[in-house]
Amino acid sequence: MNGLSFDQVLFILRGAGWTLLLAGMGFVGGALVGVPLALARSRGGRVLRAVTGAYVQLVQGVPLPVIMFVVYFGISVGGFDLPALVAAGIAMTAYSSAYLGEIWKGCIQAVPRTQWEAAECLALTPLQRAVHVILPQAARIAVAPTVSFLVQIVKNSSYAVVIGFFDLTYSARVVNNSTFKPFVVFSIAAALYFAICYPLSSLSYRLERRFNKARA
Amino acid sequence: METSVDEVVRFNKVSKAFGLVEILKGVSFSVRRGEVVALIGRSGSGKSTALRCINGLERVSGGELHTCGHAMHASAVDLAVLRREVGIVFQSYNLFPHLTVAENVMLAPRKVRGMARKAAHELAMHVLRQVGMEERADYYPEQLSGGQQQRVAIARSLAMEPRLMLFDEVTSALDPELTGEVLRVIERLAADGMTMVLVTHEMAFARSVADQIMFMHQGIVWEAGSGKLLDEPTTPELRQFVGNGL
Known about the structure:
The complex is a heterodimer.
Chain A: H1 6-43, H2 46-60, H3 64-77, H4 84-110, H5 113-121, H6 126-156, H7 168-179, H8 182-215
Helix pairs in contact in A: 1-2, 1-4, 1-6, 1-7, 1-8, 2-4, 3-4, 4-6, 5-6, 6-8, 7-8
Chain B: E1 7-18, E2 21-32, E3 36-41, H1 47-54, E4 62-67, E5 70-71, H2 79-85, E6 86-89, H3 101-111, H4 117-130, H5 146-158, E7 164-168, H6 176-191, E8 195-199, H7 203-209, E9 212-217, E10 220-225, H8 236-245
Parallel strand pairs in B: 3-8, 3-9, 6-7, 7-8
Antiparallel strand pairs in B: 1-2, 1-4, 4-5, 9-10
Helix pairs in contact in B: 3-4, 3-5, 4-5, 5-6
């Protein structure tokens, strides 16, 4: 098969599995941090807004591979020996939380202020206002841009290769090192990335259209 | 001055400024239990601001304001308790679009008063019947006309069994026919003895339903009186306002 053995293709596929896992960790972690971040950014007091704003600026201002290095080596300096998967997961969480937080902040702000007011006048606590009134509405707005950002998470998870994490990019490089067929190997890797990302971006496009139609 | 037990709302020289712009410049009036008070006046006269001060949506800048016994001018006013006692209905309805009519009404009784789903549903159907909307309980707000949405908004407030209801230009976004159906609901509430303060542009309605009419002008109560006030205005400002309105 184009000079690659079945085992070698399987090896690359295994890498793709780890890419999916890391992207999933990045998304789940990013969402867990991103929701409170978005709330703090859009509704928090002055201090909270400044602190969370600084976090977002910092993470967005540092390239993802450098974040990977900082997490991987930074924590091992502290005396903990961290598996690459955990370090990459933490780095991806930091990265995606900063972007998802900003995306979702916009979605929360897109819900009219009068909805907060109506909920407040019904004696709901600030948390109840957010959970029962604002976030469900913001979530509908957020679906399309969030799915679209998932594509970025999948592609950028490849930077985990810098700390030796075994993913699709890493496995492709290993196979290339032993076969010296870069064009074949990396074409396969590219096709796999595309196979993961294309359904996501077309889903995002469809959701976007449906949302716009619903509003018209 | 003592607050009488019967007084649900009492403004005493209340002022309110947004930055350098003074909207209220010493407003004084009171609302007794079971009374309907209509605030009328031009846009910018401060009537909506006065209404929003009553339930703490705006903080007063000076003077004293008591709502249901709470000192709204104090720094430590407990808004959470106050909001259970005071309902408000807005010009733009502000129903929650992702919830059905019944869910809109049930939300606060369930979350704030801790009612069980079934009891809250019964309560919702009861108040929806009061506004003639029980047959639309499973509709979403966007499927309703403006008048129907506004009646649901009234029901949503009633579900908290408030001691005082505030209406902020609730018919301003409606055509005359839909206005009528909303005003009839408010009339019925008045007849049932609900204490109400309403900001309105419906002069005929204010005359028929209100016990007191407050004409606000330049941030104060310019002229006050019963419904007759509109027929026999004493100040030139009110005369001009009524002349334009009727």
